[in-house]
Design a protein that fits this description.
Blueprint lengths: L2 E4 L4 E4 L10 E2 L6 E5 L7 E4 L13 H15 L4 E9 L4 E8 L2 E7 L6 H13 L3 E7 L13 H9 L4 E6 L2 E14 L2 E4 L5 E4 L2 E13 L3 E2 L4 E6 L2 E3 L2 E3 L2 E6 L7
Parallel strand pairs: 8-9, 9-10
Antiparallel strand pairs: 1-2, 1-3, 3-4, 4-5, 6-7, 7-8, 10-11, 11-14, 11-15, 12-13, 16-19, 17-18
């Protein structure tokens, strides 16, 4: 986690602005002791002092922490953005980044590899109850440049929530929306002879893949200027369930049609 509570004055502080001499620090959620981690390579951060039983900050990678800090720093410089906070304690939830953008409260969540679709659904429902629009982001990966891509369960969920687009962070407050179009597999033609000498054949056609999709990127968009609050009605299709929720959606029209 990027922030902890400094016990001497009970202030929320960044690890990059703190020193070991200011210890002790405690977790904003569980109030257990934190240790400060500083080095020349990894971004400065706090970690729970073992043993601990708290999920706050769990599963964060270096890339995840850099993403949070970069978005936070960039949004602070925007004139139409106020109340910017990182690892914002909102009561039942801790948002990676919270901000009021053009008067609308927005939570920005950076997807972590260990978070389940059930947990994403729960958190989205909680934001809806709190009147906060949520933007789920993923870290961009080079596999999205390929014609064939296998989306994870959380990507399929986001694709359904955001009306056919998934958002990938590129840097600062810039994200890339990607639509997943059908990918077609070619079934090779084959022939054989049945008993009795009758020749049979099959294949020679394309079929829609259940596993693979073709990424179709839209225009790069800025979190502070190209989005607006929207709503998504409850929906279920196959194994994907979407609760009624408030979402933060970019304004560009569907580019894949």
């Amino acid at each position: 986690m990027l922030c902890g509570i400094r016990c001497s004055d009970e202030r929320k502080v960044f690890a990059r602005e703190s020193t070991k001499e200011e210890s002790p620090f405690v977790c904003p959620r569980c109030k257990n002791e934190l240790v400060i981690r500083k080095g020349n390579i990894k971004i400065h951060h706090f970690a729970h002092k073992p043993p601990f039983n708290c999920s706050h900050g769990e599963g964060e990678t270096e890339a995840h922490r850099r993403c949070k800090e970069s978005i936070y720093n960039n949004l602070k410089s925007k004139t139409n953005v106020t109340h910017v906070d990182v690892e914002a304690d909102l009561g039942s939830l801790v948002a990676d980044i919270y901000a009021v953008i053009n008067g609308a409260p927005v939570a920005i969540e950076v997807q972590k590899s260990n978070i389940s679709v059930n947990e994403i659904t729960r958190r989205t429902t909680e934001y809806h109850k709190a009147g906060i629009s949520v933007l789920w982001l993923a870290l961009f990966n080079d596999r999205l440049n390929n014609e064939r891509y296998s989306p994870g369960a959380w990507e399929k969920w986001c694709h359904a929530v955001y009306f056919g687009r998934v958002y990938y962070w590129l840097g600062e407050s810039t994200v890339l929306p990607v639509h997943f179009s059908e990918y077609h597999l070619y079934v090779e033609e084959s022939t054989w002879f049945e008993s009795g000498g009758y020749e049979q054949s099959a294949g020679g056609y394309y079929k829609t893949s259940k596993r693979y999709k073709t990424p179709v990127p839209g225009n790069e968009v800025d979190i502070a200027t190209h989005f607006s609050p929207s709503t998504k009605n409850e929906w279920q299709g196959g194994t994907v369930y979407i609760p009624s929720c408030r979402i933060y959606l970019d304004k560009q029209r569907a580019w894949w049609k």
